[in-house]
Structure formats: C-alpha cells, structure tokens
Amino acid sequence: MTPAIVVLTDFFALANRALSYAAGLAVPLKAHLVLLHVRHDGLLSPEEYSHKAARRDEKQLQQELNKLASSQPVPAEVEISEDFLPEAVAEAVRHHQPQLLVLGRPGTAVAPMEVVTGAAMDLLRAVPYPLLIVPTVGWGDFPPRKLVLAVDGDEFTLFDNQGIMAQLLSALNATLTVLYVTNQKDPGAAAGHRIRHAIHKSGLEELTQGRAPHMVYHTHAKDGILLGATELNADLLVVVARRHSLLGSLFHRSVTAQLISESAIPLLLLPAQD
Length: 274
Known about the structure:
Layout: E1 4-8, H1 17-29, E2 32-38, H2 46-50, H3 58-70, E3 76-81, H4 85-96, E4 100-105, H5 113-126, E5 131-135, E6 146-151, H6 164-172, E7 175-182, H7 189-202, E8 214-217, H8 221-231, E9 236-241, H9 243-247, H10 255-262, E10 267-271
Parallel strand pairs: 1-2, 1-4, 2-3, 4-5, 6-7, 6-9, 7-8, 9-10
Antiparallel strand pairs: 5-10
Helix pairs in contact: 4-5, 5-10
C-alpha cells in the first residue's frame, strides 16, 4: 500500500496548481493521491457553495472527478464529502493516514485571505498533520530543491507523523537550511547555540547536514522570514505551527497566519505538540 497525499482544492478551477504540485511530489514520494471534494465549503467549492443551482448532480460530479483522477501521473482516488471541512478532512485522515495534506491557496480575487487562513487554522486544529499550502500564482520552481525551515529559537516537539521532511529531502535530493530572524543587530554566538540546541531536540538536526543556521536581522518576524527565504533562494518554506497559537483568538494576527497569506512560494506547516 503506497502512502497517501490528500489534496484539498477547487478541482474545477482553471488553474489547479495545488493538484499539479501534489501530483508532482507524489511521483518521487511513490505516493497515491486522494482528491477530497468538500461540497459545503466556500474555499474548495466556491461555485456550488455560492450558487446552489450550479450544484452538479452526484453522478455528474463523480464522473468529472474520476476523469480528473485518471489523468494524474500516479494512482488517484476520489472522495466526495457532504461534511464541513474539518470533519471531512478528519475522516479522510482516519481512513488514509496520509503523509501530507495539500491545500490550494487561490488569489485574493477568488477568496479573501481570511478565508484561507481560517481554513488552515481549522485543519491544523482538527488534524495535526503536515499541511502544504500552494499559492495559485507567484512561484515557478519545481520540484523544490532548497527547503528553508524558519524557527523562533525555542524548543519544539513535532508529532510522530512528521516524517515528510526527511522523505522530501531524500526523494527530491533537496537541501534544508535553518532560518532564524532576530531583532538584535548582533545576537552573538549564544543565539546560534540556542538554535542548534532547538533543532537537535526536535530530531531534525541530521536533516540539515551540518549547515549553519542563516540569521536575518529584522524588526518584524514575517518580513524577516520572507527576506531570508529570498536570500537563500528557497523554493519551499517550512514553518513550525505551535499549538498554543492555533488555539488562541490571535491566530489571524500570528506570524504563521501572515505567512499563509503572503508567502509567494509553497508553505509547509508542521504542527508542534507544544
């Protein structure tokens, strides 16, 4: 049984880059795709959600999605859910135990960023699985070869289902660089030791292959992360999503939420236990 990648996007959009990206990853990862169509969701099914008269009947919907699945470069199956997004994904996770969830991020003309960040928050709360958010526009490099992991310097513990990082690095022959943003112009050697200790405790140290952390001075964490990603020519940005930020009402103003809205390159969120 091959591992699964669950894809969450508007499958009837003209530019379906999230599905293409997921399929492109599935080939080297030797995974199959699960196309999860959530009918009662304004982000994933905008036409059906906004215009009930435009809803396809069950047979037509199944046929169109099956046709899309059969055109993928890896085996793909279709699941249609009448549940709301968190419940639909939780059920898919229970059934498939996927290695990755992939969420399409449409442009602001299609969906306000608050809708996208809200969907990501709901998913990370309901199912603490790696979540890859793929923008519709703004990026071009594939497959990703330069992964950048942004950290805050504090220790973190990932869930047991976070093997996707090692799998991506191996399958794509990619590199991983740790990025740390500080508001101190001269953080000193202690900052480097602190970051290395946090990475060591997380179990990700060997994935960096001894690369020194890349430090960026900036007064705003989000802007510093995006600047650092540009300096490192990153084509995939990785961020640890701490549980306390997901549960609080301030999530929409958090650095994670800002990156979901503004990252021009695909963003991989790794939920942490703390």
